Amino acid sequence: MYGRSRAGYRALTAMMDPGLKRREYPEVSYTVIGNLGAGLMGLRPLASEQTVETFPRLTTETGWAALHHAPMGRNVISVKHINNGDTSLTNENGPALSWRAAFPGKFRTLFSSKKEILATNAIRNSGAAETYSIVHVEPGETRAVQVASG
Predict the structure, then answer these.
(1) Domain boundaries of the chain, sorted by first residue
(2) What is the pLDDT of residues 87-99, one digit of tens each?
(3) Residue 123 CB coordination number (10 Å)
(4) What is d(CA 75, CA 72) in angstroms, rounded to the nearest whole number?
(5) Going by C-beta distance under 8 Å and a sequence separation of 6 or more, which residues neighbour residue 127?
């Protein structure tokens, strides 16, 4: 978080280390799960906007990550990131939702279903640049968004 993905990754893997003393304490597992969802996967409910945000924070050690069956408001979703430039979201259960598919960096273009979609550049609270698009996802539907390659 806060633009420090590598430091977060090191802390997360340290908490998951089988040799960690007191690893069985519930506080450790709750912290790991929370940091996987909110940190690595960048899942954030934007309740006032009835929107779910994703923002990948993968490092070179982690080429992809997926989180399945995550409750998010009235929905259950699955999310998969490949590197920091390709994300898919499945609306497994619940009503149609708005997805704020955000990516680190500043890009002119985002793509969904091989078609160019509106990309908005902004600055996150951490001061880092981001590019995002709002995508409508129907119940049972999987949508994917990618940054422009090259």
Answers:
(1) 42-147
(2) 999 999 999 999 9
(3) 10
(4) 5
(5) 3
45 contacts: CB under 8 Å, gap ≥ 6: 51, 52, 53, 72, 73
Structure tokens at 110: 């985002």
Lookup result for tokens 């009235």: 74
Q: In what order do the strands lie in the sheet with 75-82?
A: 64-72, 75-82, 86-93, 142-147, 110-112, 115-117
Q: Are 93 and 80 in contact (CB under 8 A)?
A: no
The residue assigned the tokens 């929905």 is: 75
Q: What values do phi and psi take at 55, rounded to 5?
A: -155, 100
> How many angstroms separate the CA atoms of 84 and 15, rounded?
23
So what's the architecture of 42-147 in CATH? Sandwich (2.60)
pLDDT tens-place string over residues 102-115: 999 999 999 999 89
Which residues are registered as beta bridge partners of 135?
99
pTM of this prediction? Answer: 0.84
Contact 67, 89 (CB under 8 A): no
Rounded distance between C-alpha atoms, residue 35 and residue 28, angstroms = 11
